[in-house]
Amino acid sequence: TAQIYDRSGRRVATIAMHTARWAATATRLSNGDVLVLGGMTAVGATRAAELYEPSTGAFRELAPMRFARAGHTATPLPDGRVLIAAGERAPGRYVSVTELYDPRTGRSMPTATGARRIFQTALLIDNGSVLMFGGRNNRRNVKCAIIFDPARNNYLDAGEPVSAGASTLVFKSPTGRLITHRIRSA
Questions:
Q1: 3-state secondary structure 149-164
Q2: What's the predicted TM-score (pTM) here?
Q3: Nearest to 121 by CA among 171, 81, 80, 55
Q4: What is the number of alpha carbons within 13 Å of residue 102 lying toward its C-beta?
Q5: What is residue 185's predicted lDDT score, i.e. its pLDDT?
């Protein structure tokens, strides 16, 4: 189930979902709907996709993702698509192929190959690209950072995270230069 709370923190509704799971993503879309993707079920990772529509107060099933994954990220892009990256199919079996999911059509398309890790951080940056860093792989912290460019459907090496503050991230590029990314508020 999913639960809805009001602004004061009081539960106002419990809604049935189509797939029971954990380690899924729930991404708020620009129209207020919430896209729920993947996660781990009792039998392994799932490709399941559902959309919660506040107007109906219910979830509806969508076409599944291309790859089963849990512990992934789902980042809304300015054009309405959602970038799905990283995750694992089973313990230690990481998914490196990125997908672009279009909630309007309910379909996903594989794109570039990214990092093999779980529980990364993904942030939309000012130019519409997505910065991804951190996470874990084979029980070790991953220090690399990459940027997905949706216009070119490819990744760029963003270097290694050096520090993170409340509104800025600093990375050491492959050439040794320090690059600062400012996080803007939504």
A1: ECCCCEEEEEEEEEEE
A2: 0.85
A3: 171
A4: 9
A5: 47
